[in-house]
């Protein structure tokens, strides 16, 4: 057996230094259920999420250059509440942009001692080339709750931001903040829901920018909840301001719908006001035969007509929740009305389950349109041009001219669990139907992370925003390409500005390995070249993947901004001039076993791609056998406590002699714990590559492995060769499972040095005991 020792500082066990960032829930398992399911920030148990000191800053993945070199939330996250999502943006002209978003980093959970915040905002005066993170909104007596909505007056340049207050146990009013300096600062809020105290949340705000007597008026809708446990239903409510946001009326609001939620307000010419919303058929309006509706006012919101069905959703879950990979993904109506009064066509985008009675495709994105001011609506048209995986959180915006628009959406690979943001430019034909170009990639692949933030349980956002300008459309999204000292991957707000109309182009891709034959543990350099053989290609992006058994390693000519996640590399190539090309070189190593590996590269562009067939290229690398050595390490029988809900983790060291290049590894764990989803487990290579083995799986189930809590028991074996992922298994997870991230990401490196196994318990009231750990490493000699 190899030397397998506890990492020690003097005579004491070395544990992860940490910071307490939340208060732990006490009591038994029955107390873990949330009281207000819809109040996501207060649901579940409060976690202690300490930083992991082995996640150093230099292990962060490089950000993209053009789309985009920096995050919109530019202030570094200082604690484990480090999530930014639910973004909105306005284009104020002259290069001035304003973005708002939910920001858990502004929240400390201590509502009793100071006003708390859950909204961040950032502004740019140079078309998004750089962003100024302004932190949180002005202090109020009751703080702000998040899920902000944003609107701008195109005549005065005034900006309005609406959201709920925190209010203590639940929100008590909708607050409207106003900025008169392009969103650089905001003044004290006014109440947008006067006379309302019954849990008003999730507002939507709009300003009438059509010419006429109603120009400059502000319109607001929100969802009004009470505790679902007392049998009352949600309501869609409405108010308006005719004095540039100084006050809102009527008192107690106008009732739009009994039952329902997730409203959106939109404005058309001739003083028309539209309120879109979701409504279910079950009691409380949160389930059953789900539909999207609209009510129209022809007199500026003084009165509303009958509800008109916009879309009949196929999903029947509460609020249209599609539950993608365990995350809450509701169905919200996102609205765009053509800004040209002569073509007041209306569009609603949303996500829905295309096959709720079966199939693996959980979510697709759709649009419906109306050409008769909302009286009738078309059948849904699918936006995403991929049929595999899950597509959700769509956004839509028109450029100022009104002929061209941009759809964006998340696209998740259901096999790898990774996701990215995509865009698709469309042009209107005479009937208002959208003729769409081929979709293009906006961001690199990122892990679909949710629930790690102590204030965001099972939640990955609800919407993203876009805004039209002159000849451009700006769009925001949240992705998890970066990590920090608290989480391997955490969400940040990203930005892109797409030019419309786009030129036509023809991207051609080649993949060339050198050498094309190599051995286990040895290098090959893969050169990917993308050429614009037709016109110029805007926003070119190349995605490069390798199969199991061929591992990307850092190095090569990274002359484009690239992001490496597992076996996926995404590179923003920026604009490619007509006839020009961009090249990326990557180093790969053969691991696991001999065989032929195929490298695939796919390029996309926001320009109109005329020949999609040559956007993808492949090349084979033949990996031959080499001498290998298998080294087995074991802790022997131990009784090591994993402390409960403390700012410490427990780290075990595995000293590996100078053997060669690691090409295969298996981790074995046998431990007892009474609440498995409290646990996080990591493998860390000598060079610092961090592999999440199992992150908060198993619910309230017990243990990893079965039988005696010792080396004689049946262990949980983490191996990339397993057929079942740990996320799909059930406690006690006895046998072989794929880890949350491939161990392969730590292979292809020199194997000598100290490997580490790290464990932490993130919540009360249970602790665990480790009985045995094993580590098997195969190296190429």
Please explain how this structure is put together.
- This protein is mostly beta strands.
- It has no helices and 54 strands.
- The strands form 13 sheets. Strands 24, 25, 26, 27, 28 and 29 form a six-stranded antiparallel sheet that branches. A six-stranded mixed sheet has the order 35-44-42-37-40-39, with no helix packed on it.
- A hairpin with a 5-residue loop joins strand 25 and strand 26.
- It is globular.
- The N terminus is likely disordered.
Question: Which descriptors apply to this entry?
Answer:
781 residues, disordered N terminus, six-stranded mixed sheet
Query: Structural class, judged by helices and strands?
Result: mainly beta
Number of strands: 54
Summed over residues and divided by their number, the pLDDT gives a mean of 85
Flag low-confidence runs: 1-51, 53-69
Query: Largest sheet, described in full?
Result: 6 strands, antiparallel
> Over all CA atoms, what is the radius of gyration?
27 Å
Query: What share of residues is helical?
Result: under 10%
Shape: globular
């Amino acid at each position: 057996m190899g030397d397998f020792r506890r990492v020690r500082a003097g005579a004491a066990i070395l544990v992860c230094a940490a910071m307490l960032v939340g208060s732990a829930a006490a009591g038994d398992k029955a107390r873990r259920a949330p009281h207000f399911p819809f109040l996501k920030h207060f649901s579940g148990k409060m976690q202690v999420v300490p930083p992991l000191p082995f996640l150093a800053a230099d292990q962060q993945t490089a950000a993209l250059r053009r789309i985009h070199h920096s995050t919109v939330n530019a202030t570094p996250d200082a604690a484990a509440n480090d999530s930014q999502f639910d973004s909105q943006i306005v284009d104020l002209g002259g290069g001035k942009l304003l973005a708002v978003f939910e920001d858990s980093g502004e929240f400390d959970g201590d509502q009793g001692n100071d006003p708390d915040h859950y909204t961040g905002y950032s502004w740019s005066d140079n078309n998004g080339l750089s962003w100024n993170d302004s932190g949180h909104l002005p202090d109020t007596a009751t703080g702000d709750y998040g899920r902000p909505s944003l609107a701008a007056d195109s005549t005065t340049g005034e900006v309005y931001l609406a959201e709920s207050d925190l209010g203590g146990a639940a929100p008590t009013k909708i607050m409207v903040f106003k900025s008169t300096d392009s969103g650089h600062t905001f003044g004290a809020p006014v109440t947008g829901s006067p006379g309302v105290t019954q849990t008003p949340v999730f507002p939507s705000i709009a300003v009438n920018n059509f010419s006429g007597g109603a120009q400059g008026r502000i319109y607001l809708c929100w969802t009004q909840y009470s505790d679902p446990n007392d049998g009352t239903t949600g309501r869609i409510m409405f108010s308006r301001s005719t004095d540039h946001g100084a006050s809102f009326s009527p008192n107690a609001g106008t009732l739009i719908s009994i039952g329902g939620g997730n409203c959106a307000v939109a404005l058309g010419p001739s003083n028309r006001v539209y309120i879109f919303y979701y409504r279910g058929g079950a009691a409380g309006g949160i389930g059953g035969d789900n539909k999207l509706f609209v009510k129209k006012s022809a007199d500026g919101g003084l009165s509303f007509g009958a509800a008109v069905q916009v879309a009949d959703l196929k999903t029947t879950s509460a609020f249209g929740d599609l539950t993608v990979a365990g995350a809450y993904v509701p169905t919200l109506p996102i609205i765009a009305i053509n800004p040209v009064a002569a073509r007041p066509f209306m569009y609603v985008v949303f996500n829905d389950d295309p096959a709720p009675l079966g199939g693996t495709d959980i979510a697709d994105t759709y649009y419906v349109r109306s050409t008769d001011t909302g009286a009738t609506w078309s059948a849904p048209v699918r936006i995403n041009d991929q049929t595999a995986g899950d597509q959700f959180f769509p956004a839509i915006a028109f450029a100022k001219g009104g002929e061209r628009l941009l759809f964006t959406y998340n696209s998740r690979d259901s096999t790898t669990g990774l996701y990215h943001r995509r865009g698709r430019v469309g042009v209107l034909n005479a009937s208002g139907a959208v003729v769409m170009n081929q979709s293009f990639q906006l961001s690199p692949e990122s892990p679909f992370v949710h629930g790690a933030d102590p204030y965001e349980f099972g939640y990955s956002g609800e919407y993203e925003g876009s805004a039209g300008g002159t000849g451009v459309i700006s769009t925001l999204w949240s992705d998890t390409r970066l990590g920090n000292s608290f989480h391997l991957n955490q969400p940040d707000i990203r930005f892109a500005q797409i030019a419309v109309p786009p030129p036509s182009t023809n991207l051609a891709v080649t993949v060339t390995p050198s050498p094309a034959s190599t051995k286990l543990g040895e290098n090959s350099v893969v050169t990917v070249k993308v050429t614009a053989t037709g016109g110029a290609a805007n926003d070119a992006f190349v995605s490069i993947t390798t199969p199991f058994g061929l591992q990307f390693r850092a190095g090569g000519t990274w002359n484009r901004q690239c992001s490496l996640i597992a076996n996926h590399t995404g590179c923003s190539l920026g604009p490619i001039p007509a006839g020009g090309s961009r090249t990326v070189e990557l180093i790969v190593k053969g691991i696991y076993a001999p065989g032929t590996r195929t490298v695939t590269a796919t390029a996309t562009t926001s320009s109109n791609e005329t020949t999609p067939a040559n956007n993808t290229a492949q090349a084979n690398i033949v990996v031959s056998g080499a001498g290998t050595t298998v080294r087995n390490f074991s802790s022997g029988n131990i009784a090591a406590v994993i402390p409960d809900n403390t700012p410490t983790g427990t780290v075990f060291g595995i000293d590996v002699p100078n053997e060669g290049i690691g090409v295969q590894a298996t981790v074995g764990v046998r431990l007892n714990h009474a609440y498995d989803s409290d646990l996080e487990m990591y493998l860390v290579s000598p060079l610092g590559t961090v592999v999440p083995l199992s992150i908060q799986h198993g619910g309230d189930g017990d243990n990893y492995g079965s039988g005696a809590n010792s080396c004689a028991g049946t262990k949980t074996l983490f191996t990339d060769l397993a057929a079942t992922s740990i996320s799909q298994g059930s406690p006690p997870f006895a046998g072989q499972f794929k880890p949350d991230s491939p161990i392969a990401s730590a292979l292809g490196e020199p194997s000598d040095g100290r490997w580490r196994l790290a464990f932490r318990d993130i919540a009360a009231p249970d602790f665990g005991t480790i009985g045995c750990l094993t580590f098997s490493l195969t190296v190429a000699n």
